[in-house]
Design goal:
- This protein is about 20% helix and about 30% strand.
- The chain is of the alpha+beta class.
- The chain folds into 2 domains: about 35 residues; about 140 residues, Sulfite Oxidase, Chain A, domain 2, CATH 3.90.420.
- The chain has a 5-stranded mixed β-sheet. Strands 3, 4, 7, 8 and 9 form a 5-stranded antiparallel β-sheet that branches.
- The longest helix has 15 residues.
């Protein structure tokens, strides 16, 4: 028998679990169940970028845009269209070069990108996952969904990772991209 899972039921069970573990209400763990709405006004390009900088909404609007039709992993058969900038174009705006030669691709394969969100969430990508010379579907720094700007709790920018079975790396409210060469 399959039952519907409601956010209220999840919150109740989570609060009971916190109580059983002796964690007082109102702590960081309980706050994790609440959506975060932050004011994000730019994205920082930090670390090993040749030209670290902050990208404003105007800077991002000048970059090449694409749309991606994505099947929603949480709603079987549902699709949405996300619009935004391929993440590799954002990295190029920070001076990173995705050259097709083997030596350049090997340097790309040794580098990682850390993506930070306003709520403290963080994910890591190998730059090889972003290189248009190596992957078919680009990861998108989206600002639109189904023709409308993203809702405040998602945007103004979020990552959309086509091909991921679960949206674990779909970072919402992106604040910074940090390049690390290993």
């Amino acid at each position: 028998m399959q039952t519907a899972r409601s956010p209220a039921l999840f919150t109740f069970v989570f609060a009971c679990l916190l109580g059983a573990l002796g964690i007082p209400r109102g702590t960081w763990a309980e706050e994790a169940t609440k959506p975060v709405t932050a004011t994000v006004t730019s994205i920082g390009l930090k670390g090993a970028f040749p030209t670290p900088r902050r990208l404003s909404p105007e800077d991002l609007r000048r970059l090449p845009r694409v749309e991606a039709r994505i099947t929603d992993a949480r709603r079987e058969g549902a699709e949405s269209v996300h619009g935004g900038v391929p993440l590799f174009e954002v990295l190029k705006a920070g001076g990173w070069s995705f050259e097709p030669g083997m030596a350049a691709m090997r340097e790309t394969a040794r580098a990682v990108l850390v993506v930070d969100a306003a709520d403290g969430y963080r994910v890591v990508f190998s730059l090889a996952e972003l290189d248009p010379n190596l992957v078919e579907k680009p990861i998108l720094l989206a600002d639109m969904r189904d023709g409308r700007p993203l809702r405040a709790e998602e945007g103004p920018w979020r990552l959309v990772v086509p091909g991921d079975k679960r949206p674990v790396r779909w970072v919402r409210q992106v604040t910074a991209l940090t390049l690390r060469k290993e």
